[in-house]
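Comment on both lines for my students:
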Amino acid sequence: MSKVNVKLFGVLRMDTHLAEETIDIAKVSDIFDSLNKRVDAVYAENKKANPELEHPAKLSVKDAIVYINGERCSSKRRALNTGDEVWLLSPASGG
């Protein structure tokens, strides 16, 4: 396992209410399971204060463009090293 810093941007940040997390994981695809657990915990806390709050959708590997240490990551199976900085960006869309 490696301790990495994950930063969320755009819609991912707005939907999850997470900006940055430090997590222990082995590879890029593990990020999403770890973040979903954190989102569940944050949601449970916020739901107490706001009973009408809707649970954000679960994150999956297809929901993000991934950068590691400033370089685009092409393989979600890529191993991570302690100290890596991972950026998760929302895929662009529009018309």
